Amino acid sequence: MDNWDDIRIFLAVARAESLSGAAPLLRMDPATLGRRVARLERTLGAALFMKSPQGYALTDLGERMRDRAAEAEAQLALAFDEGQGASAALTGQIRIGAPDGAANFVLPQVCAAIQAENPDLEVQILALPRVVNLSRREADMAIAVSPPATGRLTVQKITDYHLHLATRTDAPAITTLAALRGRRIVGYIPDMIFDKELDYLGDLGLDGVQMASNSVAVQLQMLRHAGVGIVHDFALPFAPELHRVLMETVSLTRSFYLVRHTSDRQSDRLGRFAAALIAGLRAEVARLEETARLTASPAI
User: Fold this and answer.
1) What would the pLDDT profile of 136-167 be if each residue is shown by its tens digit?
2) Measuring CA to CA, which residue among 105, 163, 164 is closest to residue 288?
3) Cys bridge to 95: 63, 139, 182, 246, which one at CB 3.0-4.6 A?
4) Neighbouring C-beta atoms of residue 122, cutoff 10 Å
5) pLDDT per residue as tens digits for the range 193-247
6) Mind listing the pLDDT tens digit for each residue in 132-144?
């Protein structure tokens, strides 16, 4: 292809599934992106996208081209890394995919610290209520709550984290599981639980969820107003109105894993970033959970 920039634009639109979604990432306006995509399609003599008011969906050719272009992009990134000495500051762009609990309450401060030490580094956090597709290069690396079973990926455990039932401190006392009946339960939209590790309420024998969201951050905001639900301990410092209940009865432990492309093991730049990210996440989860413990109301 004569113009790699056109391929870069194609990849961004394919990943965002819309011109408006890709525009901020490329720092270009949607109309310009539309013209560039149309020019690429004219050059190829075939359509890469099926356009509709809902967005840009890839054609069969577009899917094949996306996969090949993503491979080329990865190789270019490795070539760029070869030009950076091991002692140099990190530069370029690195995108991390993450479930929104990590993305909202832990990643921002960790990434800010890494970027402060590497001012020419651009860090992007992709928060999605689903598993990030690394094979399609939606991100350079991802945080997951379950290690993937398939794919050319490497997995490293980051840390355990803990979850408990929580409600407002001024809510009526909850001393038994039976007392949950009749309370407004906050949790995930049942058919949008994308990982079995997120099915927190399945074993509690509750009739249903009265206030639901596919976002952990939204669930936390719901709980700040009413109801009872499972909360990450590391999120509690951000919601001082809440306290944990039934801690001896309901106590969950989950884990975060860092998932990377197998081919990226050759990248010193991504390896150094991953090491800093893991260390930062371990320290931040521990700090926030300790803060939650020290500032907690007496457990019920």
Assistant:
1) 778 899 999 998 877 788 999 999 999 999 99
2) 105
3) 139
4) 12
5) 888 888 888 777 776 899 999 999 999 999 999 999 999 999 999 999 999 999 9
6) 877 777 889 999 9
Left, alpha or beta for 55 (phi > 0: left; psi -120 to 50: alpha)? left
Query: Measured between alpha carbons, how far is 164 from 122 in angstroms, rounded to an integer?
Result: 35
Place of tokens 């689903």: 130
Give the whole-angstrom CA distance, residue 85 versus residue 258: 24
Tokens of 108: 């921002």
Amino acid at 195: D
Q: Give the Å distances, CA to CA, from 110 to 136, 277, 285.
A: 25, 7, 10
| Closest C-alpha among 188, 185, 163 to residue 174 | 185
**Residue 8 near residue 137, CB atoms below 8 Å:** no
Cα dihedral across residues 91, 157, 215, 133: positive or negative: positive
**What is the pTM for the complete model shown?**
0.75
